[in-house]
Design a protein that fits this description.
By secondary structure, this protein is mainly alpha-helical. Helix content is 73%, strand content 4%.
Length: 111
C-alpha cells in the first residue's frame, strides 16, 4: 500500500513537470538562463545595469548625486518593464517579441 502511494506521487510529479514544460513559451529557458546569470553576477562589482552616456556627460557636465540616482531609477524601471514584456510575449507564444525584448534586456545588463 505504501509503495503504491509513493509510485502515485512520483507519477503525479512527473506529469506535473511534463505539463509545465508543455506550457513553456518559446523563450522560457532563455529567460530563466538570463535571470540565473544575473543572480550569479550579484557579487561581481563589474556586473549590473548600464545605459548610454548622456548628452550632458558628452559636454563634460558633472552629474549630481541626485541626477545619478534618478538615472539609476529610470534604468531599473526600464529594465523591469523590458523583462516583463519579454515574459508576456513568451507566455503568449510570441517568439519574435520575446526574443527582441530579451535582447534589449541583455544589452542593458553587463554580466
Amino acid at each position: 500500500m505504501s509503495n503504491r502511494k509513493i509510485t502515485a506521487a512520483l507519477v503525479c510529479a512527473v506529469l506535473a513537470l511534463a505539463a509545465t514544460n508543455a506550457l513553456a513559451g518559446p523563450c522560457t529557458s532563455d529567460i530563466a538562463d538570463f535571470e540565473a546569470a544575473i543572480r550569479a553576477s550579484q557579487g561581481n562589482p563589474l556586473a549590473g545595469l548600464t545605459a548610454p552616456q548622456s548628452v550632458g556627460a558628452d559636454l563634460s557636465h558633472q552629474p549630481t548625486p541626485a541626477s545619478v540616482a534618478q538615472a539609476q531609477q529610470r534604468l531599473k524601471k526600464s529594465f523591469a518593464a523590458t523583462m516583463a514584456r519579454a515574459k508576456r510575449y513568451d507566455a503568449q507564444g510570441n517568439r519574435l517579441g520575446c526574443t527582441r525584448e530579451l535582447a534589449k534586456a541583455k544589452r542593458m545588463y553587463i554580466l
